[in-house]
Amino acid sequence: MNSKKQNKIAIGALYGIAGLVVLILLALLGYILASGLPQLSWHFLTAPAKAFLKGGGVGVQLFNSFYLLILAMAISFPIALGAAIYLYEYARDNWVTTTIRTAIEILSSLPSVVVGLFGFLFFVVKLRLGFSILSGAFALTFFNLPLLTRSIEDSLRTIDLEQREGGLALGLSRWETITRVILPATVPSILTGVILSAGRVFGEAAALIYTAGQSAPALNFADWNPFNISSPLNPMRPAETLAVHIWKINSEGIMPDAKAISSGSSAVLIIAILLFNFAARYVGKRLYKRLTSA
Amino acid sequence: MSEEILTTQDLHLYYGEKEALKGINLNFDAKGITALIGPSGCGKSTYLRTLNRMNDLIPNVTITGTIKFKGENLYAPNADTVEIRKEIGMVFQQPNPFPFSIYDNVIYGLRIAGEKDKEKLDAVVEKSLRQAAVWDEVKDHLHESALALSGGQQQRVCIARVLAVSPEIILLDEPTSALDPVSSSQIEATLLNLRHDYTIIIVTHNLQQASRIADRTAFFMNGELVEVDQTKNIFMNPAKKQTEDYISGRFG
Ligand SMILES: Nc1ncnc2c1ncn2[C@@H]1O[C@H](COP(=O)(O)OP(=O)(O)OP(=O)(O)O)[C@@H](O)[C@H]1O
Ligand SMILES: [Mg+2]
């Protein structure tokens, strides 16, 4: 067989495999959207869930998902940023940094159920936070931190050494070089990483089942005092998220329209994550343009 | 006789075990251009980078000997590298503008140092870009990205960026080797303009370039300074055989 033929066969096989993957993805997406989209309505997106009757919505769950996401990001982003800057810009290669890197590596491959159970034992039980948004946010932080740290470190890595030397050679301190030259140049790619990890966090269920809990008490959307128990902002209330809701309906849902609600919720989840991904691209590109041509 | 602004005495530098500079004694008078020439790997860049402590970034570097800038030891324990680099700026082989506008590139050092006065910043931008002989080419798009410029223009913007912090000494490590001949000669013209006001030390592989622009030339080989003299003496009448061999292209 000559090499030209081999080449053709190889390329054909690769196309075939790639096509198959795309097909599977499209089929999944198509199925979820086709069965879920008809369920969507303003009522579905805003109404609270009903346990035994039909006609419940996912308003509370949707709100919980976003609130948890924001809290988890607010906790994990500064830590991840600091860790990534330290690891990439300051730390020399020695056993301490090797240990930290290995730890991050291991943490990032930890199954999220394990993170959830750890969160349950530590935050819910030991620290007495109970099933609450806060416990959930901490668990998500554990889940998110390694991924985010690595993605920020990768962003820093894309900036040439010459840029750093250029800053230093102007008489900027190390810190000024990082915060005023390197970080602005990496904002778009850091942001992309943040939004993509937001998608993962948004769809996470296993880490939340035993931390944020599986119940979604009705919220009073007129009460924004975080200390009131029915306030949406109260971080100590249990908060079932959309992903947990899907899991729960499918395993033990007893409302008559469980199937429809599960399909609708899945569609909402998928659409939200797709939006995150498109937003990541769009915002990243726009920001890069803005920053590089002031 | 003008005063010596920068002096190096018995300078040794080790990368780990490897001795890259083997006792350099070399002094620089204020103002004028000194070229550092020599075969690849002889330590020119290494030497240049000791002069503004750029080698601090590299792990496992050991330096012995003394470098004094205006009588102050650059490697004294209490020496402030940030201040040193404001006085001794550096331009690199690859043009490395920041991914910001031309204007922002030039004033970056000043702005971070806290200068806010818009008029003053505007004036500095114009002055520095003029000094770097790139003003006419960029004056109409100061607020566009510096990355959109040609390599030669980028390099001159980088020179302007260094000038804007008003250093006394400018170090250049093969600033034209990544550029086309036209851009190179523009950079050379720029440097000739600056030689009356700044002390310029330039590493170059281009012997013609050294002979065209340098007042003095230093020849390095294998981590040692072989000889340093007026440029025309080095090229017409070198004292050492090694220099003559190198100049006449017998090696390196
Ligand atoms: N970071 C480093 N770690 C270890 N050795 C190095 C490092 N940088 C340079 N060297 C070595 O030190 C010696 C001098 O290098 P240097 O870069 O100063 O040479 P140069 O004269 O600038 O060469 P060129 O003309 O190719 O730029 C070389 O043998 C080089 O391999
Ligand atoms: Mg070099």
UniProtKB/TrEMBL annotation, chain A:
- Gene3D superfamilies, alphabetically? MetI-like
A GO MF label: phosphate transmembrane transporter activity
Q: Name one GO cellular component term.
A: plasma membrane
- Which processes are annotated in GO (biological process)? phosphate ion transmembrane transport
Q: Which keywords has UniProt assigned to this entry?
A: Cell membrane, Membrane, Transmembrane, Transmembrane helix, Transport
Which superkingdom, per the lineage? Bacteria
Transmembrane regions: 12-34, 66-88, 100-123, 129-148, 181-202, 260-280
- Where in this chain does the record put each ABC transmembrane type-1 domain? 62-280
Question: Where is the major localization of this protein?
Answer: membrane
Q: How does it sit in the membrane?
A: Multi-pass membrane protein
Q: Where in the cell is it found?
A: Cell membrane
Q: Which family does it belong to?
A: Belongs to the binding-protein-dependent transport system permease family. CysTW subfamily.
Q: What is this protein called?
A: Phosphate transport system permease protein PstA
UniProtKB/TrEMBL annotation, chain B:
Which controlled-vocabulary keywords does the entry list?
ATP-binding, Nucleotide-binding, Phosphate transport, Transport
Annotated GO biological process:
phosphate ion transmembrane transport
Which Gene Ontology terms cover its molecular function?
Answer: ATP binding; ATP hydrolysis activity; phosphate transmembrane transporter activity
Span of domain ABC transporter: 6-247
PROSITE patterns hit by this protein:
ABC_TRANSPORTER_1, ABC_TRANSPORTER_2
This one is known as Phosphate ABC transporter ATP-binding protein
User: What residue intervals traverse the membrane?
Assistant: none
List, alphabetically, the GO terms of the cellular component aspect.
Answer: membrane
Q: Which Pfam families match?
A: ABC_tran
Q: Which InterPro entries match?
A: AAA+_ATPase, ABC_transporter-like_ATP-bd, ABC_transporter-like_CS, P-loop_NTPase, PstB-like
Q: Which PANTHER family match?
A: ABC TRANSPORTER I FAMILY MEMBER 17
Highest taxon in the source lineage: Bacteria
